[in-house]
User: Fold this.
Amino acid sequence: MKIVDQLVSWVEERTGLVKPVIDMAKHLVPPGSKWFYVFGTAIMSSFLVQVVTGIGLMSSYIPSAGQAYESIKYITSVAPFGNLIRAMHYFGASSMVIFVFIHMIRVYLMGSYKFPREIQWLSGVALLFFTIVMGFTGQVLRWDQNAVWTIAVGAEQALRAPFVGKFISDIIVSGGMVSSSTLGHFFVVHVFLLPGLLIGAIGLHVYLVLRNGISEPPKVGEAVDPKTYVKKYHAMLQRDGKPFWPDAAWRDIVFSTIVVTVIFILAIGFGAPAIEKPPDPSLVNASPRPDWYLVWYFALLAFLPHRAEDFVIIAFPVFLGVSLLAVPFINNKGERSPSRRPWAIAIVLCSLAAVSALTYLGFTEPWTPKFEASKLTPEIIGASSGPIYDGAQVFDTKGCLYCHTISGHGGKRGPDLTEVGNRLTHEQVIVRIVGGGYNMPAYAGNITPKELSDVADFLVSRKAK
Ligand code: HEC
Assistant:
């Protein structure tokens, strides 16, 4: 032990860093701040998992449109521990998103954002934003069918927004079309820019936690008054405070260990998420299917009338962002106890109900393309060779089946085409395929004349029996 002490004082003498670290570990925290206060560290632990596994992934990932897909496949099936690392990165991301939301709801319900912790809340909103953009950009790096569709459609939908549409769409795709440079930008944002911003915001957030102290558990009738709060808080700490280490820290450690273990078990049990087919330029600009935590938002857009969608796509996130930023300015004093703040409870419950309902609909309703649609069989096609049969193959390879149902097979994003031969002529079908429609990609330039005529032959042969 003596040698350890000597070593510590040797370092302390030369850096002066040991004492501040010990002071920090021993800083006083309010009593009674039990298991409600472990979510912040759960976010940090998930973030650490992301940093470590992210570095692992980066060492084999190739951010170029031609090779990204192959490199992900290599990581998933060949590289040692590649599948496990990818899976941990996936579940770590979900964990981070989940705990950011839980932490935010906890802070909101307990009024912990009130004076003097307003800037803590603001840096938390920044962290929420960075985390979501992290998730979105990470999903794009998979560079499979779904990823490429996601940006193409994101950009196309953004383009329809008034005023800022063009600008946002240019930021998303960069250079007018989805290409290697698009992927390069997403890569830089995901592995460099955002992690930097995240670490900065986390630093500020944690510094403020230490400076202002964590909020004491709210008590009914103990309102926050900016004139007296800080004095009262410090008096309370001196009287009843407990050192963070070890009195409170053990809960953080236990909880974080559970979180990381669960990420690990899920990663082993489920493995990395499947990658879709490789991206095919002729399918670009259909409909995205985002990772689960954004599904509710796309569901919201899908259920809106077309005109409203164009506006809401930008206005809604802006509205949410502004509302969140406004929270500590609307009310930074007064009661903190949830039982005295029925509106806070109502807002949280309504938001949770809306998001759950939309997420449920997003997964069950037909608005997303169905990438796993099974191929049409010769019985359904009614032929096993010739133009009609060839046309049915085109219908499959060009992704038409993702969105259209034929005799019960396929997705439901577009109209059911089982009996389209009764409605449309050969000519009309061709016009539609070449020109596209609302939420149907235009295939002009991505389909050969023969494919076009075959698929039209196939479709007009679809008639009521
Ligand atoms: C991303 C989903 C999507 C894909 C992929 C897609 N479509 Fe469509 N399709 C739609 C939607 C949505 C509509 C309705 C468009 C509208 O009303 O403006 C539609 C309409 C049509 C119609 C007109 C149907 C009618 O009853 O009026 C035809 C024909 C058609 N698609 C054929 C095709 C073919 C052939 C392909 C493949 C080459 C294809 N679609 C790929 C979504 C899709």
About this structure: The CA atoms of residues 138 and 213 lie 34 Å apart. The mean pLDDT is 86. Strands lie at 28-29, 242-243, 405-406, 409-410.
